[in-house]
Amino acid sequence: MTAHDIAFLGLGIMGGPMAGWLSKHGHRVKVWNRTNSKAQAWGQKHQGIVATTIADAVKKADIVIACVGDDPDARAVAEAAYTNMAPGSLYIDHTTTSAHLAYSLSQATQARGIDWMDAPVSGGQAGAMNGRLTAMCGASNAVFTRAEPIISSYCATRVRIGEAGTGQLAKMVNQIAIAGVVQGLAEALAFAQAQMLDTAAVLAAISKGAAGSWQMDNRWSTMAEGKFDFGFAVDWMRKDLRIALEAASACGLDLALTKLVDSYYAQIQAEGGGRLDTSSLVKRFTVGVAKP
Ligand code: NAP
Fold this sequence. Notes:
The chain has helices at 15-24, 36-45, 54-58, 71-82, 99-111, 124-129, 141-151, 166-194, 199-206, 214-224, 234-250, 256-270, 283-286; strands at residues 5-9, 28-32, 49-50, 63-66, 90-93, 115-118, 121-122, 133-138, 155-162. It is of the alpha/beta class. It has 2 domains: 5-164, Rossmann fold (3-Layer(aba) Sandwich), CATH 3.40.50; 169-284, N-(1-d-carboxylethyl)-l-norvaline Dehydrogenase, domain 2 (Orthogonal Bundle), CATH 1.10.1040. The strands form 2 sheets. A 6-stranded parallel beta sheet has the order 3-2-1-4-5-6, sandwiched between helices. It has a 3-stranded mixed beta sheet with strand order 7-8-9. β5, α5 and β6 (115-118) form a beta-alpha-beta unit. Bound molecules: NADP nicotinamide-adenine-dinucleotide phosphate (NAP). NADP nicotinamide-adenine-dinucleotide phosphate binds at residues 10-15, 33-35, 38, 67-69, 73, 76-77, 95-96, 121-122, 124-125, 231-232, 236, 240.
C-alpha cells in the first residue's frame, strides 16, 4: 500500500484510535488536537508528529482527516485546514454533521481544487479501537476510490452512498433507526425487572428470535447492570437526533418516535447524564422519571 502524508485533526474517543491505525499502517501521520495535552499523549503512544496549529499539521499533507464535534466545530476546523492545503489534496470529514454543512464545505474545498468526502462513521468507541468502523461516504466515485484505501485502515466497511452530503444523510438514517430500538430495549428490560425475572435467562430465550438486535446482544446485560460507559454519549446522540429531525422537517416528515426518544434523552441530560452512553435511556425507569 502507498504511504501518504496524512494530517489528522481531532483526537477524541474516535479520532485518537483512527489516527493510531493510520500510523500502524505505515502512513506518515501528523496530528493536531485543540487541547494540546491530548495530542502529546497520542504522540507518546504512536509513531507520528504532533503539530501545535492546524496550518502546520496540514501544509505538507496530501490527505487531511478530521473528526471533531458538531457543525460549528467541523466548519471551524475545515476552514482553518483547507485555506492551508495544497490543490490536489483530499479532505475527509468523519464528524457527524448536517448534510448542508457537508455540501457547503464540499463546494468550498472543490473551489480550491481540493477533493472532499463526508464520511461519518458507526461502530462506536469499540469499533474505533479495533479498527472495525463503518463509514457512510458522500463523494464522487473518483474521490471515493481515492479515499477508500486510506480509511480502510480503520473502517471494515466503507459504502459510497452518493455525492457530497449523502454520507451524512445515511448517518441520520442510522441514528433514527437506533433511537427506537434502544427505547424498545429499555422498556423490555424495565418490564422484565419489574416482573422480577432472571434477565440473563430472558436474554437467552429471546435474543435469537425476532426480538433480537445488535443492541440486545451488546447492551442488554450492561443495561441490567447499570453500566453506561460505552463511548457514544447522550450529548452526541442529541446532536445527531437534532440534525436528523431538522432534515426530516425540511422534507416534510414528522418523525414522531424519534422526537419522543429525543425528549427522553433530554431528561437523561437534565439528570446529569450527558456523557453516559445511549443505552442509559433505561435510567429513566430506575431513577423514576418514566414511572407513572
Ligand atoms: P470526543 O471524544 O468528545 O472528541 C471530540 C474531539 O473534537 C476532541 O478532539 C475535541 O478537542 C475536538 N473538538 C470539538 N470541538 C472542537 C472545535 N471547535 N475545534 C477544534 N476541535 C474541536 O468525541 P468523539 O466521541 O470522538 O466524537 C467525534 C465525532 O464522531 C462526533 O461528531 C460524534 O458525533 C461522532 N461519532 C462518535 C461516536 C462515538 O461512539 N463516540 C460514534 C460515531 C460517531 P478537545 O480535546 O480540545 O476537546
